[in-house]
Automatic annotation (TrEMBL):
Region (Disordered): 191-214
InterPro entries, alphabetized: Homeodomain-like_sf, HTH-type_TetR-like_transc_reg, HTH_TetR, Tet_transcr_reg_TetR-rel_C_sf, TetR_SbtR-like_C
Ion transport keyword on record: no
Name of protein: TetR family transcriptional regulator
The organism of origin for this protein: Actinoplanes nipponensis
GO MF annotation, one: DNA-binding transcription factor activity
Residues in the DNA-binding region annotation: 36-55
The keyword DNA-binding is assigned to this record: yes
Taxonomy, superkingdom: Bacteria
Domain HTH tetR-type: 14-73
């Protein structure tokens, strides 16, 4: 007998799978990688056995959720390297990263902590590192970027902005753009005067809410 292709899930099974993924996406963004399959089952309103039938381990669920997003980052880096203006390419990379993943605690942990040492995610890191180096080198060669910046500075900048985005998402989900603009002004090789800030500062009350948000 010849092997046959895997049968598509029944409609109700696929619906449950999507409920699991939606619940997991919310929980991982809120709490990070410490979320358990029991947590996901409760958020999805399903029995834990249903979750395990679709995803036999937490690692399988993490891979299903994040592999595509991490591959998209590599694609983004390639697109930014093809931007005609090297400064625009660098800015686009930092801005799009924050737009996509700024408030996602689990994505930040995958990218910036030892949790990223899974084989597939390590492959993504290996592709992103030279891309980040070249984004920086291009902008420096063209005279846009200060000469002492290094590709290894980009993850730290992304970490700063994503931390702000996570902290403030319940107060002002767009305020991270203000701080990215301030950072970019400091990265220019030749200051051109302050850029207009795209978002107002938080009020004292908003700052308190953001800093004490659990």
């Amino acid at each position: 007998m010849t092997p046959t292709a895997a049968r598509p899930l029944r409609r109700d099974a696929e619906r449950n799978r999507q409920r699991v993924l939606a619940a997991a996406r919310e929980l991982f963004a809120e709490r990070g990688l410490e979320v358990t399959l029991d947590d996901v089952a409760r958020r999805a309103g399903l029995g834990v056995g249903t979750v395990y039938r679709r995803f036999p381990s937490r690692e399988a669920l993490i891979e299903a959720l994040f592999s595509e997003q991490l591959d998209a980052l590599v694609t983004l880096a390639g697109e930014c390297l093809r931007e005609q203006n090297s400064w625009d390419g660098l800015v686009r990379f930092l801005e799009d990263f924050a737009c996509r993943h700024g408030g996602d605690r689990a994505m930040r942990e995958l990218l910036f902590t030892g949790a990223a040492q899974r084989p597939d995610f390590a492959r993504i890191h290996a592709e992103l590192v030279p891309a980040a180096d070249e984004l920086v080198a291009r902008a420096q060669r063209d005279g846009h970027l200060r000469p002492d910046l290094r590709g290894t500075d980009l993850p730290q900048i992304e970490l700063m902005i994503s931390s702000v985005a996570e902290c403030t998402r319940g107060v002002d989900p767009e305020v991270w753009r203000r701080y990215l603009t301030l950072l970019l002004d400091g990265l220019r090789a030749t200051p051109r005067g302050p850029s207009p800030l795209p978002a107002p500062a938080l009020s004292h009350e908003q700052t308190e809410q953001a800093l004490h948000r659990r």
